[in-house]
TrEMBL record:
<protein>
    <submittedName>
        <fullName>Putative fuculose-1-phosphate aldolase</fullName>
    </submittedName>
</protein>
<dbReference type="GO" id="GO:0019323">
    <property type="term" value="P:pentose catabolic process"/>
</dbReference>
<keyword id="KW-0456">Lyase</keyword>
<dbReference type="InterPro" id="IPR036409">
    <property type="entry name" value="Aldolase_II/adducin_N_sf"/>
</dbReference>
<keyword id="KW-0479">Metal-binding</keyword>
<dbReference type="Pfam" id="PF00596">
    <property type="entry name" value="Aldolase_II"/>
</dbReference>
<dbReference type="InterPro" id="IPR050197">
    <property type="entry name" value="Aldolase_class_II_sugar_metab"/>
</dbReference>
<dbReference type="GO" id="GO:0005829">
    <property type="term" value="C:cytosol"/>
</dbReference>
<dbReference type="GO" id="GO:0046872">
    <property type="term" value="F:metal ion binding"/>
</dbReference>
<dbReference type="InterPro" id="IPR001303">
    <property type="entry name" value="Aldolase_II/adducin_N"/>
</dbReference>
<dbReference type="GO" id="GO:0016832">
    <property type="term" value="F:aldehyde-lyase activity"/>
</dbReference>
<feature type="domain" description="Class II aldolase/adducin N-terminal">
    <location>
        <begin position="10"/>
        <end position="186"/>
    </location>
</feature>
């Protein structure tokens, strides 16, 4: 493995472990991937607890052919979903979890109401992808449809959520923000009242401000 692959694999394993530590998944559900160069997708294997993954357990898939070109462990069953996202968007990292608040919201609405301005960081109101059996091309299609118009995250009905980014850190952070926003919406609606939501103009203003946010 080249240094870039080794580093990216280490980042993928770290992110996968964080999903467990942060309570976004239980056991080995959920999966993480990242792109190296233009066509090598490093992705977590199926059925191996993340704390047991080491430097030699890399799983690499050629994006063009879909064939495994690194490692011997079998890739996650959601590989078609990861490959479809890389083929259909500009993402370079993908995080898929079964975070509890996000999964709960996925059973209630077709779109998460814009209860917070972080909605803008996700490209606009977060849609819920139609249900399809896990690991199928139908699920990948439904997710890509829900991600249209530049969304960087969506919920998967009766399943979980997915978030994307140009880096693994950004994809992970978006997933964590989405889980937090789902929690906020559930808290607000649990009062029995209907939460106020932000208008498209208010979200656009927040999106504009994000552009200059952070350290120079
Ligand atoms: Zn899943």
């Amino acid at each position: 493995m080249h240094d870039a692959e080794q580093q990216t694999w280490s980042d993928v394993v770290d992110a996968a472990r964080r999903t467990v530590a942060d309570g976004l998944v239980v056991g080995t559900s959920g999966n993480v991937s990242a792109l190296v160069g233009d066509d090598l997708v490093l992705v977590t294997p199926t059925g191996v607890p993340y704390h047991r993954l080491g430097p030699d357990d890399v799983v690499g898939i050629d994006l063009g052919t879909g064939r495994q070109v690194r490692g011997t462990l079998r890739p996650t069953s959601e590989l078609p979903l990861h490959l479809a996202v890389y083929r259909g968007t500009s993402a370079r990292a993908v995080v898929h979890t079964h975070a509890p608040h996000a999964t709960a919201v996925s059973t209630l609405v077709a779109e998460l109401p814009a209860v917070h301005y972080m909605t803008a960081e996700l490209g606009g109101p977060v849609r819920v992808a139609d249900y399809a059996l896990y690991g199928t091309p139908e699920l990948a299609d439904a997710v890509l449809h829900a991600l249209r118009d530049g969304r960087s995250a969506c919920l998967l009905r009766n399943h979980g959520m997915i978030s994307l980014g140009d880096t693994l850190e950004r994809a992970y952070d978006r997933g964590a923000q989405l889980e937090w926003m789902c929690r906020v919406w559930l808290l607000a609606t649990s009062t029995g009242s209907t939460p106020a939501t932000l208008s498209a103009a208010e979200l656009a203003a927040a999106a504009g401000k994000f552009t200059g946010y952070g350290q120079p």
